[in-house]
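FIELD: query
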Amino acid sequence: MNQEALEEPTNLRALWEFKKERPAVKLSEVEPATKIVKRFKVGAMSYGSLSEEAHQCIAEAMNSIGAKSNSGEGGENRKRFKPQADGKNYNSKIKQVASGRFGVNAEYLMSAEELQIKMAQGAKPGEGGQLPGNKVFPWVAEIRGSTPGVRLISPPPHHDIYSIEDLAQLIYDLKAINPYAKINVKLVSSTGVGTIATGVVKAGADVVVISGYDGGTGASPRNSIRDAGLPWEMGVAEAHQTLAMNNLRQRMTLETDGKLMTGRDVAMAILLGAEEYSFASLALVAIGCVMMRVCSLNTCPVGVATQNPALRKFFVGKPEHLINMMYFIAEDLREIMAELGFRSIDEMIGHTEVLEPRFIAKGKAKSLDFSRMLSTSIGIERKTEDPFKEKREWPELDQFAEGAIKNGEQVKMSAPINNVNRTVGARMGGWIAERFGNYQLTPGQIQYTYTGIAGQSFGSFITQGMELKLIGEGNDYVAKGLSGGRVIIVPPKDAAYDVENSPIVGNVVCFGANRGEGYFRGKAGERFCVRNSGANVVVEGVGDHGCEYMTGGVAVILGPTGRNFAAGMSGGVAYVYDPSGTFADKCNLEMVDLYKLGETGDDAVLKEMIEKHLTYTDSLKAAELLNDWENAQKHFVKVYPREYHEMVRVTEELAKTGLAGDELIEKAFIEVIGEQTVPAGKERG
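FIELD: result
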C-alpha cells in the first residue's frame, strides 16, 4: 500500500519522505506494541448503522488491548455498560454526545472514560445524519428513544451550540455529570482549525480530534465525501503549531482520523503533532466489511452495516481480527521509529524536521509549498498520570449515601441559588445513574427546592427519584438530557410582573430529554423540547422552532407558539392550546398532521398532565382551563407525526389480535416496513 501511494500519490503524505539523518536505534529499544496500541481508537460508528454483532466485536477487541472504541451517536444498550458474566467487556469507552443526540442519558454518560462532542464529522461536515425507517428496528428504536420503523433525522447545525460559549457550557455540563471522563471535541480539518482548537481547549476540552475529509463509509453522500473538508495533515499541523504558540499544547491531547491505513500514515501523523489515532473504515474491513457502500440501504451482504436478521447471520468477524490488525500497524510503526531514531511516540511528536517533500516533476504537485507545515519542529514534554489515583473519590461517603437510598429514605433540601450556579443537579444525577441506573428510584424520593435565578442547565441529566423545584426563573438548557427526574419552575409568590405572560425559562429547554417530567409556570424561549425522546412537559407558551426533531414524549403548550413548530418531528405528540385558531400557520406540516381532540384515539393524557401542572405549580392558566374543560378542550390542537401515527395505528390493530410486548412491536414493524429477507441471489450456505 505504501508503494502504491508513492507511485500514484492521492494525498499529501504520499508527497513526503523520511530524512534518515538521525542515528537509527535498535528495534528492541523502541516502546512495545502493547503500549502503542493504547493510543489507538476506533472511530464513531453508531449502533443502528452497524449491526449489534459488529458493534460489540469492535468494543470487545479494543477493550482487550487497552484501547478505546467509540459508541457513535446512536446510544448503547445499558447491558453493555458493565463486564458480562463470562468476563467479556462490550462497553464503548468513548461515548459520543454530538450535542443532545439519541440515547444520551445519565447512565450512558457515566459509563464513559471519554465523552466526545461531535461538532462535525470529516466525511460530511455541516450535515446531520439520517437513519432510514427500514433500519430503525425495535431494538435500535429502544436505545434511541424513538419508534420502530420511523426515520430519524439529525439536525445539521447542533441546536444548542451557536458559539464557543455554548460549547464551553456543554463541556461544563459533561464535566459536572461525569468529572472522571475526559472531554473530547471532534473538529473537521479546515482553514483556521488551529484557532478553533485553541478556543475549544480554553473552553475546557481535554482532547481535540482533527478529522480529515477522506474518511467515511458508504453512508455519506458522494458530493460530501469528495467536496467538503481538508486533509487531516493540514489540520493537525495547524492545530499543533497554534496550540503550542498559545502555550496550550501540553494540557491537551491531539488526535486525528481520516483514512489512516498503515504504520507510515500513523508515523506522519505523529511527526505533524498527533498523539492518538482513530481508525474506522479500516477497522470494519478487518472484521469483514467488503466496501459494498450500501450502508444506508440495509442490504450489507456481510452483516456489518445492517439490522436485517437474515443478513446479520453472515457476520464472521472476530475480535482477534481487529486485535491482529492493530498490532500489525503498531509493529509497522515501530520499525519506522527505529529507522528514524525515536524510542517513544512522546519523543517523536511534532518533529517535522525528519520529513521532506519528494521531487515530483509533473502536474500540480510540483508547485506545492510545504514549508509552513514541515519547517516548524515543535516537540512536547512527556505526559504522565498518577498510577495511584483513586478511580472514585470518597468511597466511604458513597457507601453511606447508597445505603440510605436503598433503605428508601426520603430527603428534602432547600437552598438559595443564583446564576453562577450552573448545571445544578447533574452531579447527583450521574452518581445515582452509576449505582442504580436512570429509572430505578421512587419518583420524588430526593427533593431539592431552590429560590432565586438559576444558572444555565438547571436540572440537566437528573434521574428518576430526583425532584428539583425552582422558585424564581431558569436560564437556557433547563432539563437538558432529562433522564427520569422531575423539574418544576414557578415564579415567586410576590412577583411584581405579569406571571402568566412572562418567560420563566430560556432557550433550548428539555433538549434531548429522554424521560421524566417538566412543569414550567410561564413561557419558554426558542427551541423548546428539541430532540425530546420521552419526557412529558407542560409550559405556557414557546418561541420559534418548538418540538423540533422530537422523537417521543408529550409536550403540552398552554399558550402561543412561534413559527416553524414541529420541523423534523418524527415521534411523540404535542398538544397546543389555540383559541385564536392561528397555530396551523406557524406549524411546519412537512412531517406532521393536525387534529382536534378525540379524532385520533385516546387523548386522556392531556387532562392528566394539566392537572399535574396545577398540582405542582398552582398555575392560574391550568386552573382556568380545567374549570371550563368542556369548552377549553375544543381549542386544543394535537400535533401528530405522520409515520409515528401510522405505526401507532398498526400496533393498536395488532394488539386486538392478542399480541403483546416485544412480539407485538416486531410484528407491527414488519407490517409497516415489510418482511426483512436476504435479497434475491444473495443467499449463502
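FIELD: remark
The two ends are 33 Å apart (CA to CA).
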